[in-house]
């Protein structure tokens, strides 16, 4: 029953993403957060997959025209597949990573939504990786088979998998179109939170320098 609820929630979020995409709006960026997109890296792949689905739908419609019942069932499945592909791309576009005053929200479509408090970030750096080995405590969110940002944490944070299983991760790799800009913005936000930042009220001292790249 839990799996059914998860799947229904997933499909509803996909439909909401389609509405937001059609209205040129984004999700979770209305409170002053800074958005960093990641969908461009797989746009061509999604378009190609969608095109293949359309061709397959037309082909099967011709082959099954003499079997109306089977044709209707197959057509419904094909149309749903096309809707799913478009909805997945829409979710990637309208649900970007978001940096606000206290946390970095790392997302991938409607599957992953991980909030990392800035004070738990030990290191953030631009690191292009095209291969990832599954390891305990690490979360890899590749887009177009690559990640471009690596985030090391001072302590683990909780991540819920697609089916609701809780994992504790201490290292996150993900992709951002403006990886350099995201790394720079996170470092600046962490510096602003530092007790030694002279710009913080009642907190004298020197600003914390950027971490090494």
TrEMBL record:
<keyword id="KW-0472">Membrane</keyword>
<protein>
    <recommendedName>
        <fullName>Integral membrane protein</fullName>
    </recommendedName>
</protein>
<keyword id="KW-1133">Transmembrane helix</keyword>
<keyword id="KW-0812">Transmembrane</keyword>
<feature type="compositionally biased region" description="Pro residues">
    <location>
        <begin position="204"/>
        <end position="213"/>
    </location>
</feature>
<feature type="transmembrane region" description="Helical">
    <location>
        <begin position="73"/>
        <end position="91"/>
    </location>
</feature>
<feature type="transmembrane region" description="Helical">
    <location>
        <begin position="44"/>
        <end position="64"/>
    </location>
</feature>
<feature type="region of interest" description="Disordered">
    <location>
        <begin position="192"/>
        <end position="213"/>
    </location>
</feature>
């Amino acid at each position: 029953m839990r799996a059914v609820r998860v799947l229904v929630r997933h499909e509803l979020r996909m439909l909401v993403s389609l509405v937001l995409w059609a209205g040129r709006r984004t999700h979770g960026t209305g409170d002053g957060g800074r958005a960093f997109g990641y969908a461009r890296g797989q746009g061509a792949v999604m378009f190609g997959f969608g095109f293949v689905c359309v061709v397959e739908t037309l082909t099967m419609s011709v082959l099954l025209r003499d079997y109306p019942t089977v044709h209707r069932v197959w057509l419904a499945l094909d149309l749903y597949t096309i809707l799913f592909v478009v909805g997945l791309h829409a979710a990637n576009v309208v649900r970007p990573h978001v940096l606000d005053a206290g946390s970095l929200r790392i997302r991938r479509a409607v599957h992953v939504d991980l909030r990392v408090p800035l004070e738990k970030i030990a290191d953030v750096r631009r690191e292009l990786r095209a291969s990832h080995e599954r390891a305990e405590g690490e979360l890899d969110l590749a887009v177009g088979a690559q990640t471009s940002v690596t985030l090391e944490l001072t302590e683990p944070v909780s991540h819920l998998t697609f089916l609701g299983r809780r994992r504790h991760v201490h290292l996150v790799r993900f992709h951002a179109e403006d990886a350099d800009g995201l790394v720079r913005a996170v470092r600046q936000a962490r510096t602003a939170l530092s007790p030694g930042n002279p710009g913080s009220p009642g907190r004298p001292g020197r600003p914390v320098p950027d971490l090494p790249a």
